[in-house]
Write a structure and sequence with these properties.
The chain has about 550 residues and is of the alpha+beta class. The protein has five domains: about 90 residues, no CATH class; about 55 residues, no CATH class; about 160 residues, no CATH class; about 100 residues, Immunoglobulin-like, CATH 2.60.40; about 100 residues, Immunoglobulin-like. Helices cover about 45% and strands about 20% of the residues. Strands 10, 13, 14, 19 and 20 form a five-stranded mixed sheet that branches. Strands 5-3-8-9 form a four-stranded mixed sheet, with no helix packed on it. A hairpin with a 2-residue loop joins strand 11 and strand 12. It is found in: Apical cell membrane; Cell membrane; Membrane. Its main location: membrane. Belongs to the major facilitator superfamily. Proton-dependent oligopeptide transporter (POT/PTR) (TC 2.A.17) family. Keywords: Cell membrane, Glycoprotein, Membrane, Peptide transport, Protein transport, Symport, Transmembrane, Transmembrane helix, Transport.
Length: about 550
Amino acid sequence: MTGLSLIALGTGGIKPCVAAFGGDQFEEKHVQERNKFFSVFYLAINAGSLISTFLTPVLRGSVKCFGGDCYALAFGVPAALMIVALVVFITGNRLYKKTPPQGNILLEVCKCIVFALRNRIRNRSPEIPKREHWLDWASEKYSNQLITEIKMVTRVLFLFIPLPMFWALFDQQGSRWTLQATKMNTDFDLSFNLTKCRPIKKMATGMILASLAFAAAAIVELKIEENAMPIPAPKESYIQVLNLADSDVELTIEGYDLFRQPIKPFQDPAEYSRLILNSNQQFIQVKIQHQGLSSTCNHSIDEMSVHSLIIYKRGGNLTTNIIEDMQKKPSEGMAAVRFINTLEWDINITLGKEEFTTVNKSYGVSDYRTLPRGRYNNVKFQMRAEVSALKLGLLDFGASYTIVLTQASTEALQAWKIEDIPANNVHISWQIPQYLLMSAGEVMFSITGLAFSYSQAPVSMKSVLQAGWLLTVAFGNIIVLIVAQSAPLVQWAEFILFAMLLFIVFVIFSIMGYFYISTDPEELADKGNEHETSSSKNMIGLVTRKTKL
């Protein structure tokens, strides 16, 4: 919490000021050069973020600290580089153009607004003439220049009201889009002229591109879910049958019309069947017929669960065992594997130099273990004093496997691999269109917004308006939290919802932008000074109720 608090304080102090300070280095006649600066400034920010994305995991994982990943190095290197950057920044101190501070301008703005509102409320009498703008009611106490500047700021801040929705979509790149990427296969064996467009039109274009990006993400998510394991609903359960006997088995579950065809031994792939339960926990009766013999077993099934029913021989008779399966794909693109040992002795399994797991004898079942995706062609199995090496083949992204270890009387150890949850079959390159659309939208929206915020702000309120611009990012994150908590939708539907919300905001923002008249802060300030002289003459003899702040 201490680190997060310091980051919040530091970021809140530097972000509104650094863009405004950079813009102050250019004279008003160098508008084109100033706009180029904001582009380079934004490029530098994103370049640093990109380098950190690649470098931080390397620093953390390549060096060991205190017996684990070296987070001290991963955080220490950026801290040291920040100190170097601070020294370089201070070195150029004499070269900077500095605008003298004019006190706590934000406090003055708030006082002026409160005074204007209170003065307007106290002077509601029809006898008192109306004024052109509600902020003009602060003219008894505050200068006309300050009032004019606040008018400029409030007009731009009003235009910022719809903007958080863009950031609500943009900032999901690091959360929902990243989670989407973990469910994909990561194996790798528009150009048009907008230079003459108004800033508001560019920002509106960025919104449309971001909305299209989320529509593309929804299409990708739908394709991913086609291959996903069905999640049991309440009063539902899924079951698959693994026949480890030496011949076909006829199986029936009392009360269910399933498994009409005989189940072949070591049938691959096994398929899940849905059970509709009468309660949250139910006993099922399983009847097995095999080579003229029949047997009955009872098992307990919980709702919202996935199971494998194992059929095997013991003492010349068939029996069953039911085990719970993994319901969701392994996280972060890993592969999950478990073993069933049909032999009469324990088996120790070794991957490389590390002992992976031990599987108990007589149809013992190991827990699931996750592994990085890869080909495992030299897995060692130790049975008593005998060591065997088997090829498990490719354990793919996001797949779950059950591996049955068997051995005939005269044969070597064998492994039968069953894919319980299918591997990720949608390639991660399908995310490229949505990232291209979002990146293009970011360029159109964010860089233009930075320059627009600076150009429309009075000299004394550049940082104030930059802070207002950054607040739209914070409110965007709040929108994500509210929508995610209040509307628990499936992922693709949530993407569509955000895309539609941003499109609605695009329409609203376009209408607001159509009526917005861009102003030059210096020209408006000069007009304000002229108006102050004339209005002060008109105010002679005007009596209003006294307002105290």
